[in-house]
Design brief:
The protein is mainly alpha-helical and 465 residues long. It has helices at 2-8, 10-17, 21-33, 36-42, 49-71, 79-88, 98-105, 111-122, 131-144, 150-166, 171-179, 186-200, 203-214, 221-225, 230-234, 238-250, 254-265, 273-282, 289-305, 344-357, 359-372, 378-383, 390-400, 407-419, 423-435, 453-463, and strands at residues 308-318, 321-330, 338-341. Among the domains are: 268-402, no CATH class; 404-465, no CATH class.
Length: 465
């Protein structure tokens, strides 16, 4: 209720406080701290003409408050108020923040002032800085990054990071940013700074950085390295790759393990399919099983665009005769630089884990088989057509397009086509029939007016011609 009254009387309250601003800085900051949601709402504008006019008056008031606080920014009691407006009021950039930067450069180092500098550095539209001004600011921020106060040190590093992003490709900012690395800010570097550097710097610098970091046991190098591009990973020296693979083989923490697997999935030339599958089977944490399925699909998709291939050899019973079948995934339509024969036993072991666990992992199971089409799994895919989950069923149907079906298996698909009310499932049933050169009575297929209608009608025409 107190806040409601305060916001209703906002203009009169601040008119009173701004008559003697220097003695009111603490009270102004206190009110702004309790009004952050109100400031955010003001940024969105009004719904009616009458309200819009009143809102404009409130916005003018906020901008006057901010200008006044900036004018008195040498007093640390103004800093929280500036920060609250900066965080919640989208038009804060209309004010000139150069006086605040000047106060910072002259030696004032409050936590809120560093947070303001962080916001200013992170938003190029907030303050237009000349290169020489950025260099001076950078120098002062580097000093602050070593502060015993964790909050000041972190804001200083975030500010340097903001300047680095403004000046991409500038060696000075990159050098100073990397020098500020400290273990106490490891989370910040791992989650934001290292990925940004990896995404923007040249391959040799990134490899050198990863190499140095990989030698520090406490650093989660797999999380960092998985941000690297495929081209960068392919250029890594063998010793570095061996070190990262050794980390991955012994990793117990889910996030780091999955990051390492995503990294390996980018370069099947370096980590072959059987090595990859062994690590999927070896890791026993069921909480990441869905993600494991997803990362195997990423691996397979990379194989499809890379100069490697996976050879799948299986025994198949055709008309009572056991025959050896062989198919190849990958190759890019050319001659592969290497081909690896899939260890189907390990693949089946992993697929069984997916099949047994949940509907989500059963969908991943289907997606993997859509690419690999392991003959030993066909019967299990057909069983999934009885699953209650509609997404499991249509994923199973999609997967069956990768298989040649016999007459009895075709009948199962026809039965689904006749009984389902789901148009997407009808579409996949028809695609299976088309793949197996089987005709169907078009008059028996009721086609509803959905996004799939035209495609269903086209397939019906094709398979019956």
């Amino acid at each position: 209720m107190e806040n409601e009254n305060m916001h209703r009387d906002w203009i009169s309250i601040f008119n009173r406080l701004l008559k003697k601003p220097k003695s009111s800085l603490k009270e102004i900051s206190r009110i702004l701290g309790r009004s952050q949601k109100f400031l955010s709402i003001l940024s969105t504008g009004g719904a009616s003409t009458a309200y819009a006019s009143y809102a404009d008056s409130l916005r003018e008031s906020v901008e006057r408050i901010l200008s006044t606080l900036i004018m008195y920014s040498e007093d640390t009691e103004s800093h929280p108020g500036i920060f609250f407006i900066l965080c919640n009021y989208k038009d804060a950039h209309k004010c000139d923040f150069h006086p605040v930067i000047k106060v910072f450069l002259e030696g004032t180092k409050s936590v809120y002032l560093l947070k303001i500098i962080e916001k200013v550095c992170s938003n190029a539209h907030m303050v237009r800085l000349k290169k020489e001004e950025e260099i001076v600011l950078l120098s002062e921020l580097v000093k602050c990054s070593a502060s015993a106060d964790h909050l000041i040190g972190e804001s200083a590093i975030r500010s340097i990071f903001g300047l680095y992003k403004r000046e991409r490709g500038d060696a000075v900012f990159l050098a100073e940013l990397t020098k500020t690395f400290q273990m106490r800010y490891l989370d910040l570097f791992v989650s934001k700074i290292f990925p940004e550097i990896i995404g923007n710097e040249d391959t040799q610098f990134v490899i050198s950085m990863i190499q140095v970091l990989s030698e520090i046991k406490e650093i989660p190098i797999l999380i960092i390295a998985h941000s690297a591009s495929r081209e960068c990973l392919l250029s890594c020296p063998p010793g570095l790759l061996d070190r990262m693979w050794a980390r991955l083989e012994n990793e117990k923490l889910p996030q780091e393990y999955l990051s390492g697997m995503k990294m390996a999935a980018k370069v099947p030339e370096l980590f072959n399919i059987n090595q990859f599958l062994r690590l999927l089977v070896k890791y026993t944490g069921m909480s990441v099983l869905y993600d494991q399925g997803d990362v195997l699909i990423q691996y397979i998709n990379t194989v499809l665009i890379s100069p490697v291939s996976v050879i799948i050899k299986e025994k198949k019973c055709i008309n009572g005769i056991i025959e050896q079948t062989e198919k190849t995934i990958g190759n890019c339509g050319g001659t592969p630089i290497s081909g690896v024969c899939l260890n189907t036993d390990i693949m089946v072991e992993f697929l069984e884990k997916l099949y047994r666990h949940s509907d989500g992992t059963r969908i991943e199971y289907c997606r993997i088989l859509f690419y690999t089409g392991l003959e030993s799994q066909k019967a299990y895919v057909l069983l999934l057509l009885k699953n209650k989950n509609i997404r499991v069923k249509w994923n199973a149907l999609r997967t069956l397009t990768a298989y040649a079906l016999d007459a009895s298996e075709i009948e199962i698909v026809l039965d689904v086509l006749k009984t389902t009310e789901n148009e997407k499932m009808k579409l996949w049933c028809l695609k299976i029939l088309e793949c197996n050169h089987r005709k169907v009575d078009a008059s028996a297929v009721v086609v509803k007016d959905t996004q799939y209608k035209s495609e269903i009608e086209e397939i019906l025409k094709r398979i019956n011609n």
